[in-house]
Specification:
The chain is of the alpha/beta class. The chain has one domain (2-134): Rossmann fold (3-Layer(aba) Sandwich), CATH 3.40.50. Helices cover 40% and strands 29% of the residues. It has helices spanning 20-27, 45-48, 55-72, 86-96, 111-115, 119-126; strands spanning 2-8, 28-41, 77-84, 101-105, 130-134. It has a 5-stranded parallel sheet with strand order 3-2-1-4-5, with helices on both faces.
Amino acid sequence: MFDHILLPIALDHNPEKGSAMQIAQSLVSETGKITILSVVEVIPTYVDAYLPVEARAEKIDETKNLVEEFAAIYPKCKAEVVYGHAANSILSFAEEHDVDCIVIASHKPGVADFLIGSTAARVVRHAQCHVHVVR
């Protein structure tokens, strides 16, 4: 059992249909907590220059509302949203918040994952805590 589980989700991959939450719920201790983390990806500067200044803040607020709605459905969950690169942000959050275990969903790897690496693969390679990958 773990005291603090980090559950990174990508809202565009329909987290309600996955089994990652059920696994996280089964792994959390009786007094533990689950942090649901969504990362708003960094927009390339050549695109960001053409967006209104408030666009980033609006996207973060919108994402935060959706993640909070998702977290409210489940016990022991709280929502967090960060802005940055997905894998780096997940790893940094885990280290800064004393996460015991990361439960992360992964798609079936393809050729691109062997050349570039998926978010889940990077988290597995670099995490300083336990990682449970769900397919």
